[in-house]
Amino acid sequence: MIANRAVGIIRELDDAGRAVLEIEGRRIVWDVADMPHVEYGYAMTSYSAKSLTVPRVAVHIDTEDSMIRSLVEKPLLYVGASRAAEDVAIFTDNRELLLDPQRSPILRQHDKPMALSPKEIEQESEIYARIA
User: CA 77 → CA 7, 21, 39, 71, distances in Å?
Assistant: First the structure.
C-alpha cells in the first residue's frame, strides 16, 4: 500500500510497463497499467517537501514580479535550501538585488501582527483580573 502524497523514485521501468519504485526505504514492484492514478512529478514546492530530504534542490527567487515579491523572504530560502542533501542551485532574475545586504528580499522578515495591540492586551488583563 502506498499513502497519498507519498514521494518515490522510479528506479527501473521496462517496455512492458513494469516498474520498480523506491519509496520510504522500500522497493515496490508494480505495473504502470494497474496504477493509472499515479502522478509523475519532477518538482514540488518547498513546503510540499516538508520533512523530506532530496539529493538536489533548485530554488527560484523572482525579485521583480510584484505579484509574488511579498512572498519572498528568509524562511522561503531556508525551507527550500534545507531540503537538499547534496546540491542547491538558486535561480533568480536579479542576482545583484538578491545579494544586496540593504535591499535583498530574502532578508525581509514579515512578523505576523498580533490580534491585539500591547495596550489592548494590558487592558484585557486588567478586566480579567477584576473578574477573577
Answer: 22, 30, 27, 11
Contacts of 31 (CB under 8 A, 6+ apart): 16, 17, 18, 19
Residues 6+ away with beta carbon under 8 Å from 102: none
User: Is residue 55 within 8 Å of 25, Cβ to Cβ?
Assistant: no
Confidence of residue 68 (pLDDT cuts 50, 70, 90): low
Q: With a threshold of 0.85, does the pTM exceed it?
A: no
Q: CA torsion, points 7, 10, 16, 17, in degrees to nearest 10?
A: 20
Q: Between these two residues, 79 and 90, which has the higher pLDDT value?
A: 90
Q: Is 20 helix (H, G, I), strand (E, B) or coil?
A: strand
84 in Cβ contact with 73 (< 8 Å): no
pLDDT recorded at residue 128: 61
